[in-house]
Design goal:
- It comes from Hyalangium minutum.
- The protein is about 15% helix and about 45% strand.
- The protein contains two helices and six strands, in the order αββββββα.
- The protein has a six-stranded antiparallel barrel.
- Strand 5 and strand 6 form a beta hairpin.
- It is globular, with a radius of gyration of 14 Å.
- About 15% of the residues are buried.
Length: about 110
């Protein structure tokens, strides 16, 4: 078992949702790759400096902005993978699991948007 998995408190769920990162000078578009009750993994075209605490919003879910603590940012061929945890619990694990299950596997588009 990897060190990250040993430290993980909440189960991760695959998820594909757009997220907006409200940085001090600009708003960045990114995608949530997976999420848990305590954090998420994002994919962005622009890097974000680890150690920052920034506001984020998920337009499709119409929930209030929350703060993300950026843990790490790694360049990949697909873009920058950003690991972050939520300042406060964004949602309960059952809701995140439901969102994950509701996405159609073929397109990655949530069924509730079809």
């Amino acid at each position: 078992m990897s060190y990250d998995n040993e430290r993980r408190r909440h189960q991760r769920y695959p998820l594909r949702l757009a997220i907006k990162l409200h940085c001090p000078r600009e708003v960045l578009d990114a995608d949530i790759i997976n999420a848990s009750a305590s954090g998420c993994l994002l994919l962005s075209r622009v890097p974000v400096e680890p150690g920052q605490s920034i506001e984020a919003s998920i337009p499709e879910l119409l929930i209030p902005r929350t703060r993300l603590n950026i843990l790490r940012c790694q360049a990949t061929p697909a873009g920058y993978v950003i690991a972050a945890n939520f300042d406060t619990a964004l949602g309960d694990e059952l809701s995140i699991a439901w969102l994950s299950e509701e996405q159609s596997p073929e397109s990655g588009v949530p069924r509730w948007l079809n």
